Recover the amino acids of this structure.
């Protein structure tokens, strides 16, 4: 099969429509070729939720399940996320959920597709989509799930550990908070470590709820 060459080398900006709505953004993003990640992903996985959402959650990128289904946070990390939202009293149906990078980056090993962290250039190339989502929704609270989400808005020096639990100054929302990505809970080696990480994650989400 012939390898497709990206139409643009300068990021997603040329693909973002001039007049934005959730529908026009979702439709336009389907054809995004702003970085080479589109070459191997099954599809663009855009954000979902109401445009009137008061809270926006931003993760890293789609995983294998998300890439196949075309929806954010539906895989194993998504199940942790949904369980934590319920424990914190936050309705996912009233929230907007998206990722900093809209295509799945992976390494093929046999039949398995293993997640690979996006590079800074790939995060930057995709940032026009996230910026457009935030301009459209104008949330009261913006929650950054993991380092990649933070780096998409605050630059490559952003670290979750240094920012977690603090209100971060930003033009994108009245309150910006950083916490762990739910996938980090799954990576904890011991059951008690996973339980502790989950409880800490829920505590952060309860701050969002308040």
């Amino acid at each position: 099969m012939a390898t497709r060459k990206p139409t643009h080398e300068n990021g997603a900006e040329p693909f973002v429509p001039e007049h934005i709505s959730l529908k026009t953004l979702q439709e336009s993003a389907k054809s995004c070729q702003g970085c080479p990640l589109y070459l191997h992903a099954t599809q663009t996985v855009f954000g979902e939720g109401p445009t009137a959402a008061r809270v926006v959650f931003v993760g890293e990128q789609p995983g294998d399940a998300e890439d196949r289904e075309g929806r954010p946070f539906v895989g194993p990390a998504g199940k942790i996320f949904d369980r934590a939202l319920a424990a914190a009293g936050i309705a996912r149906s009233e929230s907007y959920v998206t990722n900093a990078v809209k295509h799945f980056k992976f390494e093929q090993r046999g039949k398995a597709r293993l997640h690979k962290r996006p590079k800074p250039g790939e995060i930057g190339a995709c940032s026009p989509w996230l910026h457009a989502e935030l301009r459209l929704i104008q949330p009261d609270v913006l929650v950054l799930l993991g380092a990649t989400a933070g780096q998409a808005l605050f630059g490559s020096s952003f670290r979750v550990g240094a920012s977690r639990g603090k209100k971060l100054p930003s033009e994108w929302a009245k309150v910006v908070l950083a916490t762990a990505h739910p996938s980090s809970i799954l990576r904890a080696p011991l059951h008690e470590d996973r339980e502790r990480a989950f409880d800490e994650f829920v505590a952060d989400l309860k701050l969002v709820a308040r």
Q: What stands out?
A: The radius of gyration is 16 Å. DSSP finds eight helices and six strands in the chain.
